[in-house]
Amino acid sequence: MRFLKRLFEGKNLSDDNKTSKIVVENTFSGEEHPAEERKQPLKRIIAIANQKGGVGKSTTAVNLSAYLGHYGFETLLVDMDPQSNSTSGVGINPSEVKSCIYEVIISGLDPNEVILKTRHHNLDVLPSSIRLAGAEVELVASFKREYKLREAIEKIRKDYDFIIIDCPPALGLLTINALAAANEVIIPIQCEYYALEGLGQLINTIDLIKKNLNERLEITGAVMTMYDSRTRLAEEVIGEVRKHFPEKVYETIIPRNVRLSEAPSYGEPILIYDPECKGAIAYENLTKEVIKNG
pTM of the full predicted structure? Predict the structure, then answer.
């Protein structure tokens, strides 16, 4: 794992004030209502970001959002990826969307006119479509181009406890808009060697955005995804990431799971598609960690 040592040399995301280790139960009991127990509105805006594709960003965004809604938090899922996987993942056909996030950030359309109710409890979506693919070019000449999404979210943030932003697999203007609008970043990391190659660049980008565009931005944590217990490499990757990201890696590890892969084709979060499978239990546990780490 020499590559990892070079990659993370000088990087340490541990907090100055250590927090106690969170013990995660398999499920919330039917008598627990996390949203009702909070003392004040959360108003958390979380970007799910990693410039590498296929690491589980959309899967994490969809399922985290669904579980947050299920446990009583008013949740908005913002799809900033032209591939529109989060939009279709909650049961909305992107080709049938009349207005989407493109019109919001390019034409200044009020997001309230674009947000759609989903059939899932407490979950709305600000959808994407293929039209968003041209936004990178159009944003280049725009005034305050990095703040288009932030300006839109300011109009609606009071309506939601959580706003989850699914970022595209690139470090372009769409991702920069998402990071400039967010308070927090969650980084999905695939439990494979190549998934780590661009991580240093992502961390540097987050540091630059924090210094120049959004001083409130913090890395909440990294979540290990697509874990295969049969491979020694997966264990080594997790060990090295935990070593170099102390206190910043979620205890919950998302396994490779066939049911997780199938759910998007039915337009359903895993909570609805198969709530008893290993993938569903893992995302439920991750949701509980995100809530308690707030």
Answer: 0.86
